[in-house]
Specification:
The protein has about 200 residues and is an alpha/beta fold. The chain has 7 helices and 5 strands; from the N terminus they run βαβαβαβαβααα. The chain has helices at about 45-50, 65-80, 100, 135-145, 160-170, 180-185, 185-195; strands at about 35-40, 60, 90-95, 110-115, 145-155. It is globular.
Length: about 200
């Protein structure tokens, strides 16, 4: 979309029906996405979080066309298999380059949770500018995050972990959670066990 105001979220939730106006108490009544998974891969985190965050709209964003298509079909199948319980009506996936177009999708303070699971480490120093966590992009993330919102990161590359932590801590809008806060957050446990990258 050219701007967040032009984004019609209803067509991505509840199989194209008017999700936002649906009166079923088992469906969220929000009109905006509040949880996003940047580079969602094959959708494992979305699928795990959807039933656990039933009152939120979750969006996976993936740059690889065939992978985004796979996740969309996976969601469609899960919705069909769970038609009676109405599970997975609150998750969706879009093919998008979030590093270029993130502000086109989300308004100021829209998101309460933002996930970065196993992003490309871009090992070579000359490619570090292509990392999804950077000083410039962190300003965009700060814009779309609600006060008190949480950004989650996970990687199996120690250098990248240090890079992400250092860049977020250096930004005036972010502070690292305490170990106790991390351990109390169910999303941290889900992220550790349910991602498929």
């Amino acid at each position: 979309p050219q701007s967040p105001a032009m984004m019609d979220w209803s067509k991505h939730y509840r199989d194209g029906k008017d999700f936002m106006a649906h009166k079923d108490h088992r469906l969220p009544h929000r009109s905006q996405v509040t949880v996003a998974d940047m580079g969602c891969g094959y959708g494992g985190l979305l699928v795990a979080l959807g039933p656990r965050l039933p009152d939120e709209l979750l969006l996976g964003m993936e740059i690889r066309t065939h992978v985004a298509g796979f996740v969309q079909e996976r969601i469609k199948a899960l919705r069909h298999q769970n038609a009676e319980s109405m599970l997975y009506q609150n998750i969706a996936c879009l093919r998008a380059n979030t590093m270029k177009f993130l502000p086109n999708f989300f308004t100021k303070s829209q998101l309460s949770k933002l996930f970065f699971c196993f992003p490309d480490p871009h090992f070579k120093a000359r490619k570090h500018k292509a990392r999804i966590v950077s000083s410039t992009l962190n300003t965009e993330y700060a814009f779309i995050m609600r006060p008190g919102g949480v950004i989650y990161t996970i990687t199996d590359v120690e250098d990248l972990h240090k890079w992400m932590v250092d860049h977020f801590v250096a930004h005036p809008s972010f502070a690292k959670l305490s170990t106790e806060e991390e351990e109390a957050d169910s999303c941290v446990r889900i992220m550790i066990t349910e991602t498929e990258e």
